[in-house]
Amino acid sequence: MQEKCHIESTLSLISGKWKILILKELIIEPVRYNVLIKKIPNISAKVLTQQLKDMESDGIILREVYAEIPPRVEYSLSKKGRSMLRILKEMAIWGLENDKDILSKCPECKQCEFIN
Predict the structure, then answer these.
(1) What is each CA distance from 13 to 35, 55, 56, in whole angstroms?
(2) How far apart are CA 80 and CA 47, in angstroms?
(3) How many distinct structural domains can be found in the chain?
(4) What percent of the chain has pLDDT over 70?
(5) 108 is a domain residue
(6) Is residue 30 part of a domain?
(7) Which range of residues forms the domain containing residue 40?
(8) Rounded to an integer, what distance in angstroms lies between the CA atom of residue 45 and that of residue 71?
(9) CA dihedral 22, 25, 26, 31 (to 10 degrees)
């Protein structure tokens, strides 16, 4: 087994443009695939599907299939995924403190309130 830096290990789980945004969307409650595709601008269906599969495989999210017609699938954060909310909180704080040049504005999604 090859040794890996802890930062590198963490980054391998959340790297890329989309995984952090997917985590953000799952903070409050379980979310269906169609809601995710609408809430994450510019992500393709193929990429979203792959990212969800990767995150499920890594134990960050849970995928629950309901035996209904039509079938309903919801994604939620696992215990491991919830433990990553500290990372999102620090990212939000950093953005608030350092994004003054860009004048970023929170879209008031209220998800930041749940990062504790």
Answers:
(1) 23, 7, 11
(2) 22
(3) 1
(4) 84
(5) no
(6) yes
(7) 6-83
(8) 18
(9) -100
